[in-house]
Input
Amino acid sequence: MANAKDLEKRTPSDVKVPEDKGERFMRPRTSIHEYEDFVQIMIDMPGVNKDGLDINFNRGELTVIGRRVTWEKERIKAVYCERFDGNFRRVFALDNSLDPEKIDAKLVNGVLALSIPKRESEKPRKIQIKGS
Output
């Protein structure tokens, strides 16, 4: 399998959000961990519920698209804000060692966990020794 950190596909269109004063980017923090039987992608997305997410797999790419809105910009003026509202998009290239048909997605406490199992042929296995 490819190195877990190589799963992420960076694209110029990754997470552009048009604003009144130019463009801003939202890029949720992500970590990728490889285990013996699966790879797990964890994406921080506080303030996002499952209805605000769209997760797709197509042509070897796993795409996570979402939107976070924490306040009404039309009605409320922010005096100071380090938080970001808007759209985001993350794309991960999956190699053939992973089984996209069995991807499991869970959103718990503002963290999206995507578990992608390795194909049976890619998992380590014990070889039995025959004879005496």
Summary: Confidence is low (pLDDT under 50) at residues 10-23. The beta strands are 16-19, 22-25, 30-34, 38-44, 53-58, 61-68, 86-93, 104-108, 111-117. Residues 64 and 90 are 5 Å apart (CA to CA).
